[in-house]
Amino acid sequence: MLRNLRCLRPVLINTIPIANQSVKSTLRSSTVLKKVRICGAFDTRFCHSRKSSSADHHEKQDNDEEEPITDDDIKALILEESLQFVSKYGWSINALSEGAIAVGYPGVAHGMFERGGGDLLHFFVAKCNRKLAEHLAEEAKQIAEHPDLPKKKVSHIIRDAIEFRLRLIIPYINHWPRAMALTAVPSNTLEHFKNLSILMDEIWYHAGDKSTDMNWYSKRLTLLALYKSTEMHLIQDSSPDFEDTWKFLDNRMADLNTFSKSTSSIGTVATSMGDVASAAFTVGRNMMGLNNTNR
Fold first, then answer.
1. Phi-psi category of residue 9: left, alpha or beta, with phi > 0 → left and psi -120 to 50 → alpha
2. Residue 291: per-residue pLDDT
3. How many CB atoms lie within 10 A of CB 163?
4. Residue 49: strand pairing partners
5. DSSP the chain
6. Count of Cβ atoms closer than 10 Å to residue 103 Cβ
7. Between the chain's N and C termini, which has fewer beta carbons within 10 Å?
8. What percent of the chain stands above pLDDT 70?
9. pLDDT tens digits for 194-210?
């Protein structure tokens, strides 16, 4: 299927700066359909120029020659476009089908994604993690370039990072319970924890953590429990701008600051908040019916 889909790749044949303008597709042969599309709104790596073939011209002789589109390019393009349909179809193959159609591929292209909506969710989560990483890196750069600026405390860096990251899911808040449930599906679990691990590492890295002993594990476990418990609060919050959630986060941060004054209490906090994260995981499995003993 992937080899056939490459024949359907969008081709940029006009440089008019009109984003997302589709024009009529033409049938070149019984097996090749080329969709002409002005794709200025997408990443430039998805937009390729096409030149007439000639025996006297070779691809490496001219930088303007069309570059081949890989399977990953096709998938990334469809996944990116599919996000706009999550509000209507949720994290599902229907959203993927609409995303594929929107970029000029047939709706059956959703078959490229073995985990269906799970692949779309992982794509979104990884994208959010990158946005947070860029945000934290920019903050660190500003502090490095302006030594006169007050440095943020570790607790403030962690607290603000959690809020920034959670705000990225607010546009999809109505479908986030389903997203959390999808992470409990066995085929999605490994990728889910991989993304969580990257998120925890990113926050602690910018918070200045250099621990190499057991504290490395306890810090990430504590942060994970804090993040997941706040996420659980967020999806149930109906206050303006989710103010109750940020107050909840502030209170949990205050609890951590209090308990962490005693080394022996750190493990207690991690265990206590780990129970919250475990409960959230169980809730997700229940929502999917995976804990049904009759199955």
1. beta
2. 47
3. 16
4. 12
5. -HHHHHTT--BB------EEEE---EE-SSS-EE-BEEETTS-GGG--B-----TT--GGG-TTSPPPPPHHHHHHHHHHHHGGGHHHH-SSHHHHHHHHHHTTS-GGGGGG-TTTHHHHHHHHHHHHHHHHHHHHHHHHHHHHH-TTSPPPPHHHHHHHHHHHHHHTTGGGGGGHHHHHHHTTSHHHHHHHHHHHHHHHHHHHHHTT----STHHHHHHHHHHHHHHHHHHHHTT--SGGGHHHHHHHHHHHHHHHHHTTSHHHHHHHHHHHHHHHHHHHHHHHHHHTTT-TT-
6. 23
7. C
8. 65
9. 999 999 999 999 999 98
- Report residue 66 as tokens: 């069309």
Sort strands 33-34 and 26-27 into parallel, antiparallel or unpaired: antiparallel
Q: What confidence tens digit (pLDDT) does each residue in 159-204 have? A: 999 999 999 999 999 999 999 999 999 999 999 999 999 999 999 9
Instruction: Write the CB contacts of 25 (distance below 8 Å, at least 6 apart in sequence).
Output: 33, 34, 35, 36, 104
Residue 22, beta-bridge partner list: 37
Tell if the pTM clears 0.85, that is, is over it. Answer: no
Structure tokens that stand for 122 in this block: 């992982």
pLDDT tens digits, 39-71: 333 333 333 333 333 444 444 444 545 678 898
CA atoms within 13 A on the CB side of 132: 31
Residue 59, CA distances (Å) to 32, 65, 153 in order: 21, 5, 53
Total residue count of the chain as it appears in this document: 295
In this structure, the dihedral spanned by the alpha carbons of residues 222, 225, 228 and 231, taken in order and rounded to 10 degrees, is -80
> What residues form DSSP beta bridges with 36?
11
What is the residue whose two structure tokens read 């890196």?
137
